Amino acid sequence: MPGSPTSPFPPGSVALVGAGPGDADLLTLRAIQRLQAAEVVLYDDLAGEDFMSFVNSEAELVAVGKRAGHPSPKQDEVSRLIVAYARAGKRVVRLKAGDPTIFARSDEELRALRDVGITVEIVPGITTATGAAAALGASLTKRGVARRVQLVTGHDVDGRLPGDLDIAALADPAATTCIYMGKATFPALVERLLAEGLDPSTPAAVVESLGSPEMRVVRGSVVEIARQLAAERPHGACMIIYGFALAQV
């Protein structure tokens, strides 16, 4: 493992690092290098302590994970902490599950840092959608079947299905759709999709607790998956994928 960063990580700067979907061995080399050099690591609720094995033993570890339905730090408090540590001259890693640029609220942290002139770097990670596809043994695209992939959040700030979703696009039979944070609202979404003309037999899958020993996969049609989620909501974080690219997987 290379011991020195491939690009500068000066004191008083911040790296927003993608931890991937849960498996520590899916971290990028640059992510590991940033963790080794960090003096402070603010981290999400990740799969386990394997990630911390890459961190300098003298680094300060700060848990700032947010989970629906559980007490957790507010985003403005997390941003304030990152700014404060960087202003104190620390090399700061903000370790985020998945990829920092996809449904990770990085825009708020980037704005807070840039507003006060703090240098910030984004280190990409594997997002949950592609990690879930790998767990399913599926390709999200498929020649002649799925010409595009769409990533969408399943809930708004109030926890309900967002009211401004493009339902026609989400019902496109030639797309593969990946729903983040949608286990509570997927039944309501499916009702709207069927009304828009989505085939009720469209293949779907739920990947729960991706990257952990508790990972569980449920497959079925969109109707069957919606029915199961309405009857019994999973405890772990879920990625829901539907589309005909999942047929015969």
Description:
The protein is an alpha/beta fold and 249 residues long. The chain folds into two domains: 14-123, Cobalt-precorrin-4 Transmethylase, domain 1, CATH 3.40.1010.10; 128-246, Methyltransferase, Cobalt-precorrin-4 Transmethylase, Domain 2, CATH 3.30.950.10. The chain contains seven helices and ten strands. A five-stranded parallel beta sheet has the order 3-2-4-1-5, with helices on both faces. The protein has a five-stranded mixed beta sheet with strand order 6-7-10-8-9. A hairpin with a 7-residue loop joins strand 8 and strand 9 (216-221). Helix 2 packs across helix 3 and helix 6 (186-196) runs antiparallel to helix 7. The longest helix is centred in the first third of the chain and has 13 residues, at 75-87. The radius of gyration is 19 Å and the shape is elongated.
Describe the protein's topology.
Layout: E1 14-18, H1 29-37, E2 40-43, E3 60-63, H2 75-87, E4 92-96, H3 106-115, E5 120-123, H4 128-136, E6 148-153, H5 167-170, E7 175-180, H6 186-196, E8 203-208, E9 216-221, H7 222-231, E10 238-242
Parallel strand pairs: 1-4, 1-5, 2-3, 2-4, 6-7
Antiparallel strand pairs: 7-10, 8-9, 8-10
Q: Which strand order do you get reading across the main beta sheet?
A: 3-2-4-1-5
Number of domains: 2
Average pLDDT taken over every residue: 92
Order of helices and strands: EHEEHEHEHEHEHEEHE
Give the key terms.
249 residues, Cobalt-precorrin-4 Transmethylase, domain 1, Methyltransferase, Cobalt-precorrin-4 Transmethylase, Domain 2, 2 domains, 10 strands
